Amino acid sequence: MDRYASIIGTGSYLPETVLTNFDLEKMVDTSDEWIRQRTGIVERRIAEDDIATSDLSVQAARLAIKKAQIDPLEIEMILVATVTPDTFFPSTACYVQKGIGAKKASAMDISAACAGFLYGLDLANGLIISGQYDTILVVGGEVFNKIVDWNDRNTCVLFGDGAGAAVVQSTEEPKGILASYIGSDGDYAADISLLGIPAGGSRMPVTSEAIDQNLNKIQMNGREVFKLGVRLMPEAAERALQKANVSVDDVDLLIPHQANLRIIEAVGQRLGVPREKVYVNVDKYGNTSAATVIIALDEAIQDGRAKPGDLILLVTFGAGLTWGSTLLRL
Ligand code: UT7
């Protein structure tokens, strides 16, 4: 009997506090008009100071578990994709395990930046179809506000906080993950100013000098990252389609990484997916990094844009560089 890995429940959680472009106008030299035109972002959510990534992730995971109608004790593994872990160690996944009472699970984090959630799905898929596991919780969660330099208008307008979760379970029905593809190119890691945080790891511990230079905050060359995203995401999406031998015309909904509306639209155009089949929520939440695609998938299911039986194509890219795509039959 063939085994498939199916998403049987999703959930998402966004902090209540809304930070609008107009709020940002009062913080840095920017304007609502610039942010809307260049990014499509209108507002984003910001977690309170005492909230960490696992707090948002636990909320999202509880909703996913409820939808999946499973007992948390059925979960055998927890994978949390994040670049804003609660602590370097223990892993954020261990805090999530405690928060949801999944006492029988193993737990670990995935570090693949904005591509992390699809890395987690790829891993879950492999572990489930090989017969090793039956039920895996995959989470993408970020509290980006803690790693953003709130004086840098080049980056602080782009990001937001949030989390999404999916319960992935084995099935013998030919549905769920039909194809998955992930890739990376570490050549790009050499230039940390492209996208990353220089200080805080073993390469450059956080010192007062590093803090003075904001090296413990996100650095990004937006223009370069933009070009890479527009090239890499369509290539990644094509790989999943080819693996499953499916035409892009059969895709009911394309969910690209929500970083910038112009990138999202360019990806849709390059793939030949009409605008109405491309899911967009970057206007409401900004870029929530590892959480964007799972928050969007959960919302699409809730608002009826993604229905049982639909063919959904998720695609993302991020620092590393990393990228990935997943073709799903809901
Ligand atoms: O998850 C993956 C991570 N990141 C991304 O996917 C981001 C990818 N990149 C982008 O989304 C875009 O490159 C940005 C939105 C970051 C920037 O848009 P752009 O059209 O590439 O603008 P630019 O970097 O070419 O900057 C244009 C101008 C610059 O001024 P000068 O040098 O032309 O005088 C910037 O200083 O806009 C200025 N600028 C701003 N102005 C007002 C940059 N940020 C702002 C701002 N408000 N917030």
Give me the secondary-structure topology:
Layout: E1 4-13, E2 18-20, H1 21-25, H2 32-39, E3 43-45, H3 53-68, E4 77-81, H4 92-100, E5 106-110, H5 116-129, E6 135-142, H6 153-156, E7 162-171, E8 176-184, E9 195-196, H7 208-212, E10 219-220, H8 222-244, E11 253-256, H9 261-271, H10 282-285, H11 292-302, E12 311-318, E13 322-329
Parallel strand pairs: 4-5, 4-6, 11-12
Antiparallel strand pairs: 1-7, 2-3, 6-7, 8-13, 9-10, 12-13
Q: What does this protein look like?
A:
The protein has 330 residues and is α/β, with parallel strands linked by helices. 33% of the residues lie in helices and 23% in strands. It contains 11 helices and 13 strands. The chain has helices at residues 21-25, 32-39, 53-68, 92-100, 116-129, 153-156, 208-212, 222-244, 261-271, 282-285, 292-302; strands spanning 4-13, 18-20, 43-45, 77-81, 106-110, 135-142, 162-171, 176-184, 195-196, 219-220, 253-256, 311-318, 322-329. The strands form 4 sheets. A 5-stranded mixed beta sheet has the order 1-7-6-4-5, sandwiched between helices. The protein has a 4-stranded mixed beta sheet with strand order 8-13-12-11, with helices on both faces. Strands 2-3 form a two-stranded antiparallel ribbon. Strand 12 (311-318) and strand 13 form a beta hairpin. Helix 3 (53-68) crosses helix 4 (92-100). The longest helix has 23 residues, at 222-244. The radius of gyration is 19 Å and the shape is globular. 52% of the residues are buried. The model has no long low-confidence stretch (mean pLDDT 97). Oxa(dethia)-CoA is lined by residues 30, 34-35, 38-39, 114, 153-154, 157, 195, 220, 222-223, 225-226, 229, 259-260, 263, 287, 318.
